[in-house]
Amino acid sequence: MARVLTPRAEDFPRWYQDLIAKAKLADNGPVRGTMVIRPAGYAIWERMQAEMDARIKDAGAENAYFPLFIPESYLKREAEHVEGFSPELAVVTHGGGKQLAEPVVVRPTSETVIGEFMAKWVDSYRDLPLLLNQWANVVRWELRPRIFLRTSEFLWQEGHTAHATRDDARAYARKILHEAYEDLMVNVLAIPVQVGLKTARERFAGATATYTCEGMMGDGKALQLGTSHELGQNFAKAFDITYSSAEGGREHAWTTSWGTSTRMLGGLIMCHGDDNGLRVPPKLAPIQAYVMVVKDGEGVGAAAAKLRDALRDAGVRVALDDRVDTPFGRRAVDAELRGYPVRVEVGPRDLAAGNAVLVRRTDGSKTPTPVADVVGAVLAALDADQKALHDEALAHRESRTVEVTTLAEAIEAAATGWARVPWSAVGVAGEAEANGQGVTVRCLLRADGSVPDTEDEPDLVAVLARAY
Predict the structure, then answer these.
(1) Could you give the CA distance from residue 360 to residue 367 in angstroms, rounded to a whole number?
(2) How many CB atoms lie within 10 A of CB 432?
(3) Residue 162 to residue 129: CA distance in whole angstroms
(4) I need a labelling partner for 443 at 20 to 30 A (CA). Which of 111, 214, 297, 319 fits?
């Protein structure tokens, strides 16, 4: 396998690019910074979408769709917002062969256009909360693109809500953070994320608070996997999102926004992948069990098809590989690269003994198993390996995280992993110093690990790291 992928320990970025190419997950698009998501990669994204969409709907939000093109004047109405996005904007000045009367921005995010329609749709306190989500593409012109992690166009969901009170808006932003984002990442993606508050320097442009889910990758760097923002009344005032209160007065709403993207696919690769390829957590995997005909003849093909049907009837997402005209070794390597959680290999010799061979991607174990026991063994392996991937990632994070007391120690520790340091030992000036050395404050936590409301609370802990 070393000839297929560059070893992670030798060159982690090259390993990442090799894996994406060899597992046929994605390719570079024709315009610099864009990507083509291939079927194998898109199948994983579809599973992420389905799991996330269900959680968002459970939180009460409804899906809608808003335009790709946004009048430039909309962005200018919230000064901090347009300033934050200005370097990344793609602007259309001509359409239909003519110069446009007003330039339009290709959607970098939709706070402004959705704010315009919230103002139109909200009139009374009875219209609140207004809970919206959209699945869309966005464009942010990247100077240093990397597939899935930073591309000029990417896919995501973005939620936007309006509430009658600040407390209600804050509670909803946190509900999404924990019940949609953290739950998906921990329990489906098997990534043990650190949830916390972004500093003022790191928070979303135009927000009053940004909450984040941070994952540690295989090389010890951090990756921001999702964020949820309190926007206060900034956008409500810019777009006149007001409502008649129960008392008869006119009040500005309180709004939130929140998003996750195809960056989660990059996180999945870098958190769980190994030198043999991708390892997909069973709850997420589009194909959980891959039944393979080793060599045809002697009833092998029929037995493999019967196992596929039995696994499907048991609720397992299963595929059958009976391409005996392709060498088995090549097919097995491809299955390893794709990260199928369990392979069920059926060959004449094992079948003659009444067995099939179960190969578990997580630990590489190969176990001859009576054909009659295969379904139960596969179900048990899927449950065990979901937990095993999470526990392995958590152990990795804990082994690469150190407790320090000074900014200098934190910056040094960030060369190989994460540092936890008192926020009082860093502060605004220390954060700027760390940034100058390529280290960022990923998030702030309370001493008990809970998420603070502001960075001014006493005794906060800062997590510092290098990041993607």
Answers:
(1) 9
(2) 11
(3) 6
(4) 111
